[in-house]
Design goal:
heterotrimer; A alpha/beta; B mainly alpha; C mainly alpha; A: alpha/beta; D-Maltodextrin-Binding Protein, domain 2; 12% strand; globular; B: mainly alpha; MetI-like fold; two-stranded antiparallel sheet; two-stranded antiparallel ribbon; 68% helix
C-alpha cells in the first residue's frame, strides 16, 4: 500500500464525508475531488477506496473524471423543484450498475435534485421477496422496482408504463432522453409484456462464449462457431488438462434459477423451445431430447461441483483457472480480467455464441412470447411503482439512472453488464477501457452488443413463470442430475406434466 | 478420582474435540486475512497464506499502516459496514433488555403466584415460538407499517424480544423456582411489598439466571435473519442480513464477508465474557428441584 | 399491591391471593397479544383465502387450501425431511452435547478456556454458518471435501448434490453450530449438582457408568428435558441452512416445511397456501410438544 495513495484516499474520504453530511456544496466538493482526479483515476489505481471497493464492485481502467452532463443536471435541478426533500427507495440486486450508482454516482443526483435516494442492495431471491411483499400489500414501501425479466409478467400490473409517464407530463420528460436509443431487442425482451412497457431497460447480462486464449492456443483450438465445435473444444481441453483444468463449467444447482438458465440455452440451441404455440410445455420433444443429450455429454467435461453451483460458483471456477471455456453471463468477463482476485486475468477472450445445432424456433412456433436464441439474456428493468407516493421523483431518478450520461459512467466505473443504450457502446470513454488484464475492462462489449442484436434468447413471459423457472423446472432438472430419473426423457416428461398442471391452475 | 495419566488423556481429548469445533472458525479467520487470489487455493492454505488486512480495510473503511497505526477513513457505499455493526449492537442490546425485563416480571409472578391453568398458560407462551418465522413476518409487516415501526430500530427490538420471550420466561421461571418460597413469605410477614421482595431479595439471588438468559437472548437476536430481512429496508440492517450483500451477481466477496463475520463475533463474545461468571451458575434450569 | 401490614392478623393466605399476578404479567401479555396472537389469527384468515395475482387481492377459497395440503405429495415429502432432520440432529446434539459436557466438566487448567472457545460457534449467524459450510463442502474448492477425499472417506460426488448425502451435509452445519448450545446448558446443570451423593457413591464403589446412569442422568433429567424441547422447536423450523446450502435440493432431498412455506409465500405470492403450510407445521409441532411434555412430566 503506497503512502501517497493513502493520503489521497483519506483526503478524498473526508471531503466526501463532509459533502454527504451537507457541510460542503457540490461545486467545492467537485473541485476538491477534482484535484485528486476523483472517479476512475483513483478507483482504478487504488486497491481500496472509501466508498467503493474492488473485486467487481467498482472497477475501472483509466483516469476518468465524473463530470455529469451539465445540461441534464440543470434540467433535473429545475424539474425536481417540487419534489425536493422527498425520499425514494429502491431494492435491487447487487449488480455492477446498482453498485456503481449506490457507491459513486448517487450523490450527483441527490445534490442536483434535493431528492434523497435510498438503495437497498440484496441477492436476487431476496429482491423478489421484497417486491412480492410490497406489491401484495400495495403499501408502496418502495418507489422503484428492479424487475428481472423472469418476473416481468408477475409485476406488469404494479408499475407505471414509462411511455405513459413520459408523454403525460412533459415537464418531467427528460430532454434528449431518447427512448429509441435503447437497443430495440432489449426493449422487447426485458421490458415489454402484453403491450405494457414494464420499465426502462436497466441492465443486460447475456450469455456469450468466453474461453481461455492460452489454452486454445496451446491445443490449437479454434473459436467455436457451432455447437459441435464448442463440444469438441470442451472435450479436447478436458482430455489434455483434467483434472487441473476442466473442459467447461456450469451453473447447475438444483432448485435454483441458474440451472434453468443453462437448460434454456442448450434447449434453444438445439431448435427446441420451452413452450409450443398452444401454451404446452415442449421441452420433452425431439429437439428437447437432443439438447439433453448434448448437455449430458457436455457435463462430463465439467468440474464435479457444477451441480452445487449457481452463477457464483460457475464464475469462481473460471476465476480460479479450472475451466477452459464457458457459455455464460458476459458480466463475468471484467471480473475475470481483474488482476487482484483473478488467476486468469488477461487470459480470457470473448466471442459470440456458437450457431445453433438446429434452426431456432420462431416466435410463432413458441408460446408466451418466448424468443429462442443461444445468447440467453437475464436483463432487468427499472420501474416506477404504481403504489409509490413519490412517483414523479422516482420517475426522474429512473430517467437519470438510465440516461446516456449516467450509463457511460456506470459502464466506465463498473464494467460488467452491457449498457442498454446503443450510443453508450460507441462512446470514446467506454472504448478507452477496452484493454486486457485491467479491472472493469470493456473489451468484451462489442461481443455483447452483437449478441444482443443477433443471438439473444428471451424466456417466455407469463405470470406463473416465476414459479416455473425458480422451482418446478430447476427442481426436476436437479432431480435428474442427481440420478433420480432413469432417463432424460422420463425427466422431461415429468416436467411437462408438472408445468402443464400448474398452468391449468 | 482420576489418575494423572487419565487427566492428561482427558485434557488431550478435550483439546482435540474443541479443536475440531474450532476448525471452521479458524478457517473463516484465514479467509478474512487472505488476499483474494488465495481464498480458493487447493490444497488448502491453512497456515502459509499471504497475510493481509485488505478485506478489513475495505469493509470498515480503515487503513492499517505499516507501523501498525490505525487510521479511520469515513465514507459511504455498499461495503462500509461500521454502521451495520452499530445497528446490530443496538438491536441486540435493546431486545435483550426488553425481553429480560418483561420475562423477569412475568416469571416471578408465574413462580410465586400460581394462576389458574398455569401449566397451559406457560405452554401457550412457549407455543408462540413454534410458529414458522415466515408466518409471523407477514402480519408483522402490516402491523409495523401501521404503527410506523417498519424499518426502525425499535421495531426490530420488539420483534426480537418477542421471539425470545418464550425462552426467557421458561428459563427464568425455572430459576425462580429454585429460590425457596420461604424467603418471600418471611419478608411478606415482615411487611415488605411484593415488588420490594422481588427487587431487593429475589432478583439479586437470581442474577446468575438472568445473566444466562440475557446471553441466550443476545445470541438469538445477534444471529436472527428473516425478521430483519422482512422488516427493514434502508435505515438499518443487522450483520446476518447485511452479510448477504456480499453475494453479488458477479461472485461472492468471500474475503469481505469473512472480515465482517469475524469482526461481528467480537461484540457477541465480549458480551458472553462479561456475564460468563454468572453464566454457568445460571443455566441450571431448576435442576436442583425435582 | 398493598405494602404496609395494617392489621394484627397478617393473613398470609389472603395476602398471597390478593397479590394479583396480573400486573406482573401485563407487559408480557400486552406484547404477546399484539404481536403473537394477531399473527396467529391472521394466518387462520389467510389460510381460507388465496391471493389472486391479477387482482392483487385476497379471495375467499374456503377449505381449498387445506384440501390441497393433504393431497400435496411435496408437503408430505417436506414433512418427512423436516422430521428426519429434527430427529437426527436432536439425537446427535443431545448425545454429543452430553459427552462433551462430561468431558469438559473439569476444573483442570485450560478447561475454562475451552468452554469459552466452544461458545464461539453460537455467535455466528446461521445464514453465515451455511455459507461457511457451503464453501467447506464444495466439491472442487472445499477444504472438508479435500481432507475427506485425502482420507479416502469421500468419492468425487459432491456432498450437497447427492441425494443420499445432501441432508447429512446440511445437518453437519446445524450440528456444528448447536451442539455447543447443548454443551453449555448441560455443563451448567452438571456443575450445579450437589457433590454429596457422588462422594458417597464413590465410597460405595460404584463404577463411572453406574454413577452416570443412576445419579447424573436422573438429577439432570429436567435440564435435559427442557433443552431438548427448546432445541427441538427450533430444529423443526429450520430454514437458513437448507435455504443457503441446497435450496432444498437435489430435487427435494433437503426440502423442509419452513422452506416450502417461505417459497409459497414470498416467491410465488401464494399467501393463503403459505399460511396453511405454516399453520400445519405449527399444529404438528404443537402435538409433538404436547406429547413430549406429557411423557417427560414437565410441569410448570
Amino acid at each position: 500500500m503506497k503512502f501517497n495513495h493513502n493520503n489521497r484516499k483519506r483526503y478524498l474520504a473526508s471531503v466526501t464525508d463532509r459533502y454527504v453530511k451537507g457541510q460542503m456544496d457540490r461545486r467545492t466538493f467537485l473541485r476538491s475531488a477534482g484535484k485528486l482526479g476523483l472517479g476512475a483515476g483513483v478507483l482504478g489505481l487504488s486497491a481500496t477506496m472509501p466508498f467503493g471497493g474492488r473485486g467487481g464492485f467498482i472497477n475501472s481502467a483509466q483516469a476518468l473524471e465524473i463530470q455529469p452532463d451539465a445540461d441534464m443536471m440543470a434540467w433535473l435541478k429545475d424539474a425536481a423543484k417540487p419534489f425536493a426533500g422527498q425520499t425514494i427507495k429502491l431494492a435491487t440486486e447487487s449488480t455492477p450498475p446498482s453498485n456503481a450508482i449506490n457507491s459513486a454516482l448517487k450523490p450527483f443526483f441527490e445534490e442536483a435534485t434535493g431528492i434523497k435516494v435510498e438503495i437497498e442492495v440484496l441477492p436476487l431471491e431476496q429482491v423478489l421477496q421484497k417486491l412480492t411483499l410490497d406489491v401484495a400489500s400495495g403499501l408502496g414501501t418502495y418507489d422503484l422496482y428492479y424487475i428481472d425479466q423472469s418476473w416481468m409478467a408477475s409485476f406488469s400490473g404494479d408499475v407505471i408504463d414509462p411511455r405513459e409517464k413520459y408523454e403525460a407530463n412533459s415537464d418531467l420528460a427528460m430532454p434528449n432522453y431518447n427512448m429509441d436509443d435503447f437497443l430495440p431487442a432489449l426493449v422487447d425482451g426485458i421490458s415489454m409484456y402484453d403491450g405494457i412497457m414494464v420499465g426502462v431497460p436497466y441492465d443486460i447480462p447475456i450469455f456469450i462464449t468466453m474461453y481461455r486464449k492460452d489454452i486454445y492456443d496451446e491445443l490449437g483450438l479454434k473459436v467455436p462457431t457451432t455447437m459441435e465445435e464448442y463440444m469438441a473444444n470442451a472435450v479436447a481441453i478436458q482430455e489434455a488438462k483434467a483434472p487441473e483444468i476442466y473442459g467447461t463449467t456450469g451453473q447447475m444447482k438444483s432448485g435454483h434459477y441458474s440451472l434453468e438458465c443453462d437448460w434454456t440455452c442448450w434447449l434453444w440451441a438445439h431448435g427446441g423451445s420451452i413452450f409450443g404455440p398452444d401454451g404446452k410445455f415442449t421441452g420433452n420433444d425431439d429437439a428437447g431430447m437432443a439438447a439433453m443429450e448434448y448437455w449430458i455429454k457436455l457435463k462430463e467435461n465439467m468440474p464435479e461441483g457444477v451441480t452445487t453451483w449457481t452463477w457464483d460458483g460457475q464464475g469462481q471456477s473460471v476465476l480460479q483457472g479450472i475451466a477452459g471455456q464457458a457459455l455464460s453471463w458476459g458480466e463475468f468477463f471484467p471480473w475475470w480480467d481483474g488482476p487482484d482476485d483473478s488467476k486468469v486475468s488477461g487470459l480470457m477472450e470473448a466471442a459470440v455464441p456458437p450457431a445453433p445445432a438446429a434452426p431456432l424456433r420462431t416466435t410463432d412456433q413458441t408460446g408466451y412470447g418466448e424468443i429462442p436464441g443461444v445468447g440467453h439474456q437475464g436483463g432487468s428493468s427499472l420501474a416506477v411503482s404504481k403504489y409509490s407516493k413519490h412517483q414523479d421523483a422516482a420517475w426522474l431518478f429512473a430517467q437519470w439512472a438510465t440516461s446516456f450520461d449516467t450509463q457511460v459512467y456506470i459502464t466506465a466505473l463498473g464494467g460488467g453488464t452491457g449498457p442498454t443504450r446503443e450510443s453508450v457502446y460507441d462512446d470514446p470513454r467506454i472504448k478507452a477501457n477496452a484493454k486486457p488484464g485491467i479491472p472493469g475492462t470493456t473489451r468484451h462489449l462489442d461481443v455483447v452488443r452483437e449478441t444482443i442484436a443477433s443471438h439473444m434468447g428471451s424466456e417466455p413471459d407469463l405470470p406463473e413463470w416465476a414459479e416455473l423457472s425458480n422451482d418446478t423446472i430447476p427442481v426436476e432438472l436437479g432431480r435428474f442430475w442427481a440420478g433420480e430419473y432413469d432417463s432424460p426423457k422420463a425427466a422431461m416428461d415429468s416436467i411437462a406434466k408438472k408445468v402443464d398442471g400448474i398452468l391449468k391452475g | 478420582m482420576l489418575s494423572p495419566g487419565q487427566r492428561m488423556l482427558r485434557a488431550l481429548v478435550a483439546w482435540m474435540v474443541v479443536g475440531i469445533f474450532f476448525f471452521p472458525i479458524y478457517y473463516w479467520f484465514t479467509i478474512a486475512f487472505r488476499i483474494d487470489k488465495e481464498i480458493f487455493e487447493i490444497p488448502p492454505l491453512l497456515l502459509d497464506f499471504t497475510f493481509s488486512w485488505q478485506s478489513f480495510e475495505e469493509v470498515f473503511g480503515i487503513t492499517i499502516g505499516a507501523k501498525g497505526g490505525l487510521e479511520v477513513v469515513p465514507g459511504g457505499g455498499n461495503y462500509y459496514m461500521v454502521p451495520r455493526l452499530v445497528d446490530s449492537i443496538i438491536v441486540a442490546v435493546g431486545s435483550t433488555a426488553l425481553a429480560v425485563t418483561v420475562a423477569t416480571l412475568a416469571s416471578y409472578a408465574l413462580s410465586r403466584m400460581r394462576i389458574p391453568g398455569q401449566h397451559h398458560f406457560v405452554f401457550w407462551i412457549l407455543s408462540t415460538r413454534m410458529m414458522p418465522p415466515v408466518a409471523v413476518a407477514i402480519p408483522m409487516f402490516f402491523i409495523y407499517k401501521n404503527f410506523g415501526l417498519l424499518d426502525s430500530h425499535l421495531g426490530i427490538i420488539i420483534v426480537h424480544a418477542l421471539m425470545n420471550l418464550p425462552l426467557a420466561v421458561l428459563l427464568l421461571k425455572s430459576f425462580f423456582d429454585d429460590i425457596p418460597q420461604e424467603i418471600d413469605e418471611a419478608a411478606l410477614i415482615d411487611g415488605a411489598s411484593r415488588f420490594l421482595i422481588f427487587r431487593k431479595i429475589v432478583m439479586p439471588m437470581a442474577i446468575g439466571g438472568i445473566a444466562a438468559t440475557a446471553v441466550l437472548c443476545f445470541i438469538f437476536s445477534w444471529t436472527e435473519f428473516l425478521f430483519v430481512l422482512t422488516l427493514t429496508q434502508t435505515s438499518l440492517k443487522t450483520v446476518p442480513v447485511v452479510s448477504t450483500t456480499f453475494v453479488t451477481s458477479t461472485g461472492t466477496a468471500w474475503g469481505k464477508m469473512a472480515a465482517l463475520g469475524v469482526t461481528a463475533m467480537i461484540p457477541a463474545f465480549i458480551f458472553i465474557l462479561l456475564v460468563q461468571k454468572n453464566l454457568v451458575r445460571g443455566l441450571t434450569l431448576g435442576s436442583l428441584k425435582q | 399491591m398493598t405494602d404496609v401490614p395494617t392489621s394484627v392478623k397478617p393473613p398470609l393466605q389472603r395476602r398471597f391471593i390478593s397479590d394479583s399476578a396480573f400486573p406482573w404479567l401485563f407487559p408480557l401479555l400486552a406484547l404477546l397479544l399484539v404481536f403473537a396472537v394477531y399473527p396467529f389469527f391472521y394466518n387462520i384468515y389467510l389460510s381460507v383465502h388465496e391471493f389472486v395475482p391479477r387482482r392483487r387481492a385476497l379471495e375467499f377459497v374456503g377449505s381449498a387450501n387445506w384440501v390441497k395440503l393433504f393431497s400435496d405429495s411435496r408437503m408430505w415429502g417436506a414433512l418427512a425431511v423436516t422430521l428426519i432432520y429434527t430427529g437426527v440432529c436432536l439425537l446427535i446434539q443431545l448425545v454429543l452435547g452430553m459427552l462433551i459436557a462430561l468431558l469438559l466438566d473439569s476444573d483442570d487448567p485450560g478447561f475454562g478456556f475451552l468452554r469459552g472457545l466452544l461458545t464461539l460457534t453460537l455467535v455466528i449467524p446461521p445464514a453465515v454458518t451455511a455459507m461457511i459450510f457451503l464453501l467447506l463442502e464444495d466439491a472442487n474448492f472445499g477444504v472438508m471435501t479435500y481432507y475427506l477425499q485425502a482420507l479416502g472417506l469421500l468419492g468425487s460426488n459432491p456432498i450437497l448434490a447427492n441425494p443420499s448425502t445432501a441432508l447429512m451435509g446440511v445437518m453437519i452445519a446445524d450440528i456444528w453450530q448447536w451442539t455447543p448450545f447443548m454443551v453449555l446448558i448441560f455443563l451448567a446443570g452438571l456443575r450445579a449438582l450437589p457433590p454429596e451423593p457422588f462422594e458417597s457413591a464413590v465410597i460405595d464403589g460404584a463404577s463411572n457408568w453406574q454413577v452416570f446412569r443412576r445419579l447424573t442422568l436422573p438429577m439432570m433429567s429436567k435440564v435435559i428435558a427442557i433443552a431438548v424441547l427448546i432445541r427441538g422447536i427450533d430444529l423443526f423450523r429450520t430454514f437458513d441452512y437448507v435455504y443457503v446450502m441446497t435450496s432444498g435440493g437435489p430435487g427435494t432431498a433437503t426440502y423442509t416445511l419452513s422452506l416450502y412455506a417461505w417459497q409459497q409465500t414470498f416467491s410465488f405470492i401464494k399467501w393463503g397456501y403459505g399460511a396453511t403450510l405454516s399453520l400445519f407445521s405449527l399444529i404438528v409441532i404443537l402435538v409433538i410438544a404436547h406429547i413430549y411434555v406429557g411423557l417427560t412430566k414437565l410441569k410448570w
